[in-house]
Amino acid sequence: MNAKRFYIPLALMLALGMLLSACGSPYPDEVTDLPLGPQEYDDIKYRSEVNIDAAQILILESYPVQVRLTVQGNTHNACYSLRAVVNDPDPENRILVEMYTMVPPDVGCVRVPEPFNVSIAIDMEGQPNGDYSVWLNDEWVGEFSYPG
Does the predicted TM-score (pTM) go above 0.85? Predict the structure, then answer.
């Protein structure tokens, strides 16, 4: 009888702990900088899409003003390498950002989503003052005024 009094609360506490741990964010806590553009050996890899869950523009209070795009999402597995290309503003002051993954050929990886939390620099050096919009993979992210 005393064993039941001990094991039932213990089992409930373990179940509650597992339930609460499942409520955390699937993304890494640390934001990493993402290198821009193609990297070495990308010419022998295949380009693939990336799953984007959230994106936001950050304006850093610095001189000169720094603009960053933070993106959360996941790749199809750990073998996929993230890439980003930030294009110069077009005549309508739209900054188009392409984000994708590169996949090595003939590599077998378990298809388990690999979450990421990255920061992409948007270089505004030499750009005129004005209002700009940021688009990530043809989806509107937001707007900002430069120099801020």
Answer: no
